[in-house]
Amino acid sequence: MKKLAIAVIACGLAGSAAHALETLPPAAAAAEVATPPTTSATPSVASAPGALPEPLATAPRIHQRGGWYIGFGVGAGGGRARIGDESYTFEDLLGRSGTTAAVNLRVGATVTPKLLVGFDGGAIGAIASGPSEIFQLNYYDLGAMFFPWERGAFVRGAVGRSVFTIDTDGPVLAGNGTYGGWNALGGIGYAFWLGKAFNLTLNLDYQAHFLSGSGAIDVSRGSGWSAWLGFDWY
Known about the structure:
Blueprint: H1 2-23, H2 26-33, E1 68-83, E2 86-89, H3 90-94, E3 99-112, E4 115-128, E5 133-146, E6 152-168, E7 175-193, E8 198-212, E9 219-233
Antiparallel strand pairs: 1-2, 1-3, 1-9, 3-4, 4-5, 5-6, 6-7, 7-8, 8-9
């Protein structure tokens, strides 16, 4: 009798549970039947609050100026000197055909990717033989090169010491002397990159020289221009 009562109670409980599951919505019933175990996921570094984003990789620069530079150049040029009350070109002073040339040397520091500062020196000369004649303007300057777009076109400026040398037995003048002073230089140019740290440059310069000194020839001023090809290494 006891066994029969226990069986009846068990059947009643099972029926009540089945009826309760049938009355629940499908989603709730599924959750009630089997609830998956929950795990605590550790947030990643990128999604953690306050985490900094990873920096984007930047491509290496193909052309790069180092902390210093050195360069030289060769080309053609001409000059003019004020002697007494007259102004003469080098060709006038030679009185015949001669050889004119321009050279340049520069070395300095890369201050910024756009600005270079350093020594800027060179010479413009005219030479003839039979009789021998030499007219030469030297400049020893502190100069700067500025690249508005970091490469390509640039402008130059410099100021410094001037030395004008005359040694002639020619038909126009006879005598010799060395005249010192100072000068201001301005120029423009364009730089072509060859490789990672080498520039081939085209340069056009103009110089104004203010001179004084003793000699058989009275020289007070000079000027010069030059167009030359430069080779710069950074």
